[in-house]
Specification:
heterodimer; A: about 220 residues; alpha/beta; Rossmann fold; four-stranded antiparallel β-sheet; globular; B: ten-stranded mixed β-sheet; two-stranded antiparallel sheet; 12 strands
Chain lengths: ~220, ~400
């Protein structure tokens, strides 16, 4: 269970979130929507512990992750979070398989374990035929599949996706939605920040949260 | 026990190759710096060693004859007179000089010895222990042996005398390893044979080596000899050391001053290149953090990267410097360090591997470079990943 308790976030002079309180249950698919700058991405960053709230607390499964020192925040991310970034944040000078295994490197797994996990996600997200291709040479949809595979290689219980369809055409966006449905069926908690209307009619979405100027409005 | 993480090492290697233009630049500059600094140090060390070796064999005082300010031969009748002086414990008359092997334009150092004399250089006695020289035989260094063999003189060599006639001298042995290492251009033969080749009269010698019982009396004995034999040049061991040091020190002083300025300039360039992270590199650190890498994972990868690059440059730089100084004879630097005078014209670089020098070069390059790569990465890695990726 994820709880945001009276959370505020400030970036210098910009107030991204104002006293936000939210709760997401395990296995839920939540869509955060609102215009650009409304605070959707900030909520994802706080849940992933890649930034800290200015005020308030973020609690995941009973642990206050917003208070975690940097070292433990990294371990928390590694073990619990799969993050699909808006611009995918792939490392362009690495190939597909090298990008996907990045989260596994600090775990120091055996070669077999590493390969097993890599093969599984590449097959699941249909990118294995591109395994040795440099990611900068991939299309937008392929890059997104690499990002999804990378986010899932650790088998995390929480998936966060920031504007996942912003750079995709409708066909690829629908394909992404199918992937999300599949992940939900595996009882993952999924939080998607988007303003893509495609998500608004989805039956599988458990909850929509609308944000405006850093405040939850509905 | 914690297993070594080879994936981090692999990541560091891939990082070096992914940013290859920057890393190649840094590698080249570092290798060049270590090569130059290493060459200077090896050269200085070799000169120092050679100086000690040369000085060790000269006794306490050298007496040379001069005529019109030039060195000339000395009549060995003075030996008895000097031996009679108070404080003198031994006098050794030496016959030595350079013989020009015109085919290769190389000078051989010919040393005439008397097997019944006590030699100041104990290595000479060691050589003579197992070999009996006669009037037409010689002991040569391995370097000379190879050189002569190239000219088909594998058993003997014909020395050309002053009057144009030749004398055939058989090679009967090679110098033992110790002396061969130190004097690769040396030929040892009987004193009378050396005198014949150089065209000396029977009583004429090149110089005298004098041993003084009490080291405190050396200046006084030198003064007395000079007074009694005004045409001679009397050099004490101290004079010779000072003469060598004067030649080497001022050259190396100028060079080192210039080098330090150059080194600092180059190092600033390297530091700037190594420590300035591009936005792409910063973003990569942010991505790694966002994907669950801890700060110490990132720094460990950076440590491997810095170590591999700087250690590679260090080893290559040292290797090139060793080859440059000891195989090639340090062209260009040689002229900077060694003045072309009689004392040093045939100066050779004897191989010495000084661990302190190697360690100093290591300290000047590897840890400093690693610090230059880790510190900026640490600065980025300690920021919020969100902030770094923005």
């Amino acid at each position: 269970m994820i709880k945001l308790l009276n959370v505020s976030k400030r970036y210098d002079d910009i107030i991204a979130l104002k006293d936000v309180t939210l709760q997401f249950n395990e296995g839920e698919l939540i869509v955060l929507h609102g215009v650009s700058g409304s605070g959707k991405s900030s909520i994802l960053s706080l849940i992933a512990a890649i930034s800290k709230p200015t005020n308030g607390e973020v609690v995941v499964d009973g642990d206050t992750i917003s208070m975690l020192p940097d070292h433990f925040a990294s371990v928390y991310r590694r073990d619990n979070i799969g993050f699909i970034f808006q611009r995918y944040n792939l490392i362009p000078s690495l190939n597909v398989s090298e990008n996907i295994i990045i989260p596994l490197i600090p775990l120091n797994l055996t070669q077999d374990e590493m390969m097993q996990k890599l093969e599984y996600v590449m097959k699941t997200f249909n990118i294995e035929h591109k395994r040795d291709v440099m990611v900068k040479k991939l299309s937008g949809g392929e890059q997104q599949r690499v990002a999804i595979a990378r986010a899932n290689v650790n088998n995390p219980k929480i998936i966060l996706a920031d504007e996942p369809t912003a750079n995709l055409d409708k066909k690829l966006s629908l394909e992404f939605i199918e992937v999300i449905k599949e992940l939900k069926s595996q009882n993952r908690t999924i939080v998607i920040a988007t303003h893509d209307p495609l998500f608004f009619d989805l039956e599988c979405v458990d909850r929509f949260v609308k944000l405006e100027n850093g405040i939850v409005v509905s | 026990m914690k297993r070594f993480n080879f994936y981090l090492l692999e990541y560091a290697v891939s990082y070096i190759f992914r940013y290859k233009s920057k890393n190649l630049f840094v590698f080249t500059i570092l290798t060049s710096l270590i090569f130059i600094l290493g060459s200077v140090f090896f050269l200085a060390e070799s000169i120092k060693n050679e100086l000690h070796f040369s000085v060790d064999g000269v006794g306490d005082i050298i007496v040379q004859n001069t005529k019109a300010g030039m060195h000339t031969t000395l009549d060995d009748t003075v030996v008895e007179k000097i031996l009679d002086m108070q404080g003198v414990s031994n006098v050794e008359s030496r016959v030595w000089g350079y013989y020009n092997f015109s085919q290769n334009n190389i000078h051989f150092l010919l040393l005439g010895v008397d097997e019944f004399e006590v030699h100041n250089n104990p290595l000479i006695d060691k050589v003579l222990e197992n070999v009996e020289l006669n009037d037409s035989s010689m002991i040569v260094s391995s370097g000379i042996k190879k050189l002569l063999e190239k000219s088909y003189y594998d058993k003997y060599f014909n020395f050309i005398l002053e009057d144009g006639s030749t004398v055939q001298v058989q090679i009967i042995a090679l110098l033992n390893e110790i002396i061969d290492f130190e004097a690769n251009d040396m030929i040892i033969m009987k004193k009378e044979l050396a005198q014949k080749i150089f065209g000396f009269e029977n009583t004429m010698v090149s110089d005298l080596i004098i041993k003084v019982g009490n080291p405190k009396e050396i200046p006084m004995v030198a003064y007395k000899i000079q007074e009694k034999f005004p045409n001679t040049q009397v050099l004490t061991k101290e004079d010779i050391v000072a003469s060598y040091e004067h030649v080497f020190n001022y050259k190396s002083g100028i060079f080192l001053t210039l080098f330090i300025v150059g080194f600092l300039t180059f190092f600033m360039i390297v530091y700037d290149k190594a420590s300035g992270l591009s936005s792409e590199e910063k973003k990569e650190i942010g991505i790694l953090k966002a994907l669950g890498w801890r700060i110490d994972d990132i720094l460990q990868a950076k440590l491997y990267e810095g170590f591999l690059l700087s250690m590679g440059a260090y080893l290559l730089g040292i290797g090139i410097a060793l080859a440059y100084v000891y195989l090639l004879g340090a062209p260009f630097l040689r002229e900077l360090f060694i003045a072309p005078n009689a004392l040093t014209q045939d100066f050779r670089f004897s191989f010495t591997l000084d661990y302190e020098t190697l360690f100093l070069l290591f300290l000047l390059s590897v840890p400093i470079y690693i610090a230059a790569t880790i510190v900026p990465s640490w600065r980025v890695a300690t920021q919020d990943a969100d902030e770094v990726m923005r």
